[in-house]
Design brief:
52% of the residues lie in helices and 8% in strands. It is an alpha+beta fold and 526 residues long. Helix 6 (99-116) packs antiparallel against helix 7.
Length: 526
């Protein structure tokens, strides 16, 4: 037994231990990310999160088996209060006051907002929820916090803390392992530079510095492609190292994510990933920072928390002790182990590309319960190969006066040519609109789908002087190849799908501006 304990303490624990300063930095970044996310969501509050928009609660509750506080708060004022409460809790989280309680409340609200409208969810939201789930069991308030000044912190790492520490680190690695293993099957595309170059020509996401980067010399683009490919493959090595090599790999990954944020419009994914990578910063990193600080004679006010502490009253939250505390700890350990088992099995499964994939019957019940709160594991198979298609939308509508217009692109005529040139991301007001319309395009049921609700929303909110009678919602897909990439005149329209045909009256739906090369249409129209 002593041998096992010695092996664990010498070889395993140092690799899964997370420095208290890294946990504190993660806590602060989580608070900042919540504030940024809420401010950005405020732009679409009525449209995406209330019953006044095209995604009412009845649609979500009929399509998803989730639990959310916002199912019962459906008006703009109520949702605004929830959003403001999120910001307040995030600010309290940043200063580390009653950290555990505030973090749990913040996590509940983050998940509730996400589940209010899964149609606009992204991998950033998924990764953030999962990191928050594991972090609930970690001592986030041990450093740089009001709690640490008041000795409200955890002195010794418990079994629960060590388990959660390992699983939150593995959560980040699981994403890289799965994504990297899929990239490896497309290694030629990444090593040649094609994958990276073609993604930069994926106009619906390319923005800011992206259009300039894709015009860079071929060798530089190939270098960027190889760089990111290799980083996906070596990311798991962070778990093997405990000192400088660990944080060097972490920072090279952060640099890659920062480049993604500056070239592609993928929401907060890069920022969430950077926050997660901060958990890999070992004790050696903070020692090195201290050495550099002393060498450069950098001074800063260490007493700002002490000053702040004097203004914050002390309140005792219910003190749980004795048998009840032990029961709660045991339950938490069971939850963490079960969720961790699901993550590891899913990681292995999603990294497998044979026909004999692992059957997950042994964890389907645990996975089912986790999915209620949308903290189950995704596939992580995003942007694993090059792109040679792009998609945009045309919503043809006929008004009562007989005019035919495009209400999506706000055009007086209907055209199936792209309207935004290479700035195709401008067809979406915010990046969440892109996720939403992608979800609409995937909906199947013409009577109860998100597409039907969206069309009905346009019927009710369009110009009252000349109301809409019929709407036909199209998804247009263009294709390019290595020779034509970047030359829009040579892009080929390979597919036009009719997502949904809708009647704003009691009459039967009909197709408006039916293109000659229509590929598919819903069953409710002929």
């Amino acid at each position: 037994m002593n041998v096992i304990s010695n092996i664990y303490n010498k070889f395993i624990y140092p690799r899964i231990k997370i420095d208290d300063r890294s946990l504190a930095l993660f806590r602060i970044l989580v608070g900042i990310l919540i504030i940024i996310d809420v401010i950005l969501r405020f732009r679409n509050l009525t449209y995406f999160y209330t019953d006044d928009g095209p995604v009412p609660t009845e649609l979500i509750m009929s399509d998803y088996n989730y639990i959310s506080i916002l199912y019962y708060v459906t008006d703009p004022i109520g949702v605004s209060i929830i959003f403001i409460l999120q910001i307040i809790l995030a600010l309290i989280l940043i200063i580390g006051y009653k950290t555990k309680t505030v973090f749990i409340l913040s996590t509940i609200l983050v998940i509730s907002v996400d589940l209010r409208n899964p149609y606009v969810a992204s991998y950033a939201d998924t990764l953030f929820r999962l990191l928050l789930f594991w972090a609930i069991f970690l001592p986030l308030g041990n450093k740089w916090s009001i709690d640490s000044l008041r000795n409200e912190k955890y002195s010794n790492p418990s079994i629960l803390t060590q388990l959660a520490g390992f699983f939150i680190l593995f959560q980040m690695l699981a994403m890289y392992i799965v994504n990297g293993s899929i990239k490896y099957t497309n290694a030629e595309e990444w090593l040649s530079g094609w994958a990276f170059h073609s993604i930069l020509h994926y106009d619906r996401i390319t923005w800011l510095f992206g259009p300039y980067v894709r015009e860079s010399p071929e060798w530089l683009i190939q270098f960027g492609s190889i760089y990111w490919f290799i980083m996906m493959l070596i990311a798991p090595l962070m778990l093997l190292f405990t000192k400088r090599l660990r944080y060097i790999i972490a920072f090279t990954l952060m640099f890659g994510h920062l480049n993604i944020a500056l070239t592609t419009r993928v929401g907060a994914f890069s920022l969430v990933a950077i926050a997660g990578l901060c958990l890999f910063l070992p004790k050696q990193f903070w020692n090195d920072i201290e050495t550099v600080k002393n060498y450069l004679s950098i001074k800063y006010d260490k007493n700002y928390l002490e000053k702040l502490n004097t203004y914050i009253p002390e309140y005792k939250i219910i003190n749980i002790d004795g048998i009840l505390k032990n029961i709660i700890v045991i339950i938490c350990i069971i939850v963490v182990i079960s969720a961790g088992f699901v993550m590891i099995i899913n990681t292995v499964d999603n990294s497998s590309y044979t026909d004999d994939r692992i059957e997950l019957n042994n964890n389907q019940y645990v996975d089912g319960y986790l999915s209620l709160f949308n903290v189950d594991q995704p596939s992580w198979g995003f942007y694993t190969s090059g792109r040679n298609t792009d998609t945009f939308y045309v919503f043809a509508a006929e008004t009562e006066s007989g005019n035919t217009i495009d209400i999506f692109n706000k055009k007086d005529t209907v055209s199936f040519d792209r309207h935004y040139g290479h700035n195709l991301h401008e067809q979406f007001t915010t990046y969440r609109y892109r996720f939403y319309y992608s979800s609409v395009g995937r909906s199947d049921d013409p009577e109860s789908s998100a597409a039907s609700y969206l069309a009905d929303y346009h019927c009710k909110t369009y110009n009252k002087e000349d109301p809409i009678k019929y709407i036909s919602m199209y998804e247009v897909t263009e294709q390019w190849n290595l020779k034509t990439m970047g030359n829009l005149d040579e892009y080929e329209t390979i597919r036009i799908n009719l997502i949904h045909a809708h009647s704003c009256t009691d009459s039967k739906p009909k197709i408006i501006e039916k293109p000659d090369n229509l590929n598919s249409k819903p069953d409710n129209v002929k």
